[in-house]
Amino acid sequence: MSQMTTPPPVSPPGPWKFPESTTTTTSAGTPVHIFDRPGQYVATVRVTVAMPLFVEPRELEGVATIMSRTLDEGTELHSANDFAAALERHGAAYGVDVSSDALHVEISVPVSHLAPAVKLLAEAITRPAFNVADVGRHVTIRLGEINQEKANAGYRAREAFAAYLFDASTRRSRPTAGTPDTIRPLTNVQVAEFYRNNIGPARAQILFAGDATGVDVAAIVDDAFGDWRAEVGPALETPEPLYLSGDRVVLVDRPGSVQSQLVIGCAGPDRRSAAWGPAAVANHVVGGTITSRVDTVLREEKGYTYGTRSSFAAPRKGGTFTLGGAVRTEVTGAAIGDALRILREARDGLTEQEVQEAKDSLTLTAPLRYEQADSIIQQVASNIANGVPIDFADTYMQRIAATTAEQATAAYREFVGTNGLLVVVVGEAKDVRPQLTELGLGDLIELT
Amino acid sequence: MPLNYPLAEQTLDNGLRVVVSSDRAVPIVAVNLWYDVGSRHEPPGLTGFAHLFEHLMFQGSRNVQSGQHFSLLETVGASLNASTFFDRTNYFESLPSGGLDLALWLEADRMGYLLDALNQENLDNQRDVVKEEKRQSYDNRPYGDSYERLVRLLFPENHPYSHMTIGSMADLDAASLEDVHAFFRTHYGPNNAVLTIVGDVSVEDAFDAAKRYFGHLPAIPTPPPAPDGTIGPLTEVLRDDVTDDVPSDLVTMMFRLPPDGTPELDAAGLALDVLAAGQSGRLNRRLVRDEQIAQSVSGGALPLIGGVSFGTLTGIASDGVDLQKVEEALLEEIEKLAESGITADELATVQAQAERDWLEQLSTCAGRADEISHHALLFGDPNRINTRIDHIRAVTAEQVQAAAREWIRASGRAQVTYRRTEEEA
User: Fold this and answer.
1) Which of A58, A344, A408, B420 fits A281 for a cystine, CB–CB 3.0-4.6 Å?
2) What's chain A's Rg over C-alpha atoms?
3) Which positions 344-383 of B are in contact with A (Cβ < 8 Å)?
4) Residues A101, A161: one domain?
């Protein structure tokens, strides 16, 4: 036969649910959520600890990050070098992540080596040594990392965006991992104190995903974490963020840039809001994919960019909407003009067809997103950090599926362009400045 | 652990190799095509063409409108993309299994009939997009041109691996529509590709579907093979010292390595892992933890099929430390490994790490489909995905030392350094 001239039909998929878990608790009272995923030979084990960053002392911001990064750098039982060697000998990879509301410490490890690797994970979390030299080294490494961040256009744009979207009283207006003036004074004394005051079994939840066939995961976890005895009460609740509003343009000079890095955005909903699902649908239409309204013009029609993406994102309290990407220096003004026009026109309404396609794409990709053990853990840990049920993905998918075009438009209108849009440009200021002035977007704030 | 992913293989009459691995655990299916065309196949003057097609293949074909490839697949829940490398290009999508026919129809339409839609307008537009990609990924980031500089040093002029996949913008600018059409006619056809289908479909249904959509496509004349890149270890030190506005001083060394698919390459890769992988690697222990002369170290092998591979070691100097000290420490560790070999414990560690990496790579239908295409296209044997761990486990400490002694030496390396522009007084 020859080539068909029209696309073949697609048979609809069956219903989908987020993978189910069983929950136990350790002898220390820490909840343990076990996702048995046959065929996932590499397991992820993660400990998520409620750790709101606003409790960091203002003059020591970044102490939570340095504390987190030195958990495995020497314990009561192993030196830093010996700990790494022991863990890696089991084929495990170890990582930490600090977000605005939680600390995540995880290993991925072949299930065949689960027990000894979990023992080491527990050692890092429950018995860190915080030696002077190891903490000092991480302070130095963080200072070097800040130099790298300053040279990275994307990082600079996100940093300036946070600084001008949030009021200075909001922790998120400043970098999670601290700045040179708050990092330099840190010693192991403050790091250990922060640990003592903030990390304990009552604030933690332990997650496992992987092929648990013939493995008593609950017993292995209890053997490692059951005797964790740190007297730390519940974490404080993260306060609501304070946003700045109005149309503003921030230009960060980055001499030698051959592109301008852009972030355009404003406040957005968080998971407590009824808009959280509908906003995701609207975002998909406006800037969430290569076929979105923004990239259809900026990339496919005009060739200004390799690609832009927008998203609504939120930690526990208070979200953001951002559109980000890099455009050629000479067309910076034109690209921003087009982007703002498209973002504002979307307030006039999204079509039924656009919204239906976005809903289909968002709901039907769910089974792909949670195929891997690690991706399940990331989702569940994020749910815990953000204060929603561990199977929130099901609720979220139901809300998306039920979203009408009117609701998607309304959710978008509630945020995007309502209290102004903040435009951040990182690039060659002398070339970009006149283009921005020509656009007449209001006050221009210049940073070097 | 022994792996036993099921594999079934057929070659259609037009030469398309089809590999199917049925897995009913999740209701999705992964479709993955590897074309035997990468940057190593590009003749001088046509660099960047394989990658340019990675863009043009989404601009429509005989029965598919521009942009429709993405929109049709996205609305049925697909995740899709493409990538280009030295040895090949690949095109792939994962989606709920009811969309298998749609995915195959779209892939077949662009394999057979892309040129019906490839006109001057979308060539010009995607050339602009590629230039922005180069600015974003290479030119506008610190050290972004390091690999371009290194492969130019490491390989002779016009060697198939002496240029990067992004290619030369001058070559792209000079390309006519006819050059682009000719490149497609030469390389894109059923007998120059492997199609892999993994997931929630029976073997029989998958083969039937492959035949239904690809069976009628005509074979193309056998494409010219890539030039033979066989070349031994470098026997001199070739340097490129750059002074630039970089955040920290950095040194990267690049070594030629044996070609992929040989025990020697596996051994050389493990040697680089002993030096640079993980937190327990020798370089991290010494340079970052003990002496604190480096902020970070990294490295590893990059396996290639065309007669030679390469590997790298990178160190970023700590603030206020002379980069020369980092370079000297790297060279000392390289020579120590070549002279004294590795311990049984080090070998067991890097093997265990390689095993986890591999199991993770195979843990999704998409990842498995990619490796099946890879091993079917480049080695003619998809079952290598099941034996890969055994190959890694079979490498001995003696083999690691022998490979290091021959290929990873202070006296045979290409090296680029970046030093910060001196502040004006």
Assistant:
1) A408
2) 24
3) 345, 348-349, 352-353, 355-356, 359-360, 363-366
4) yes
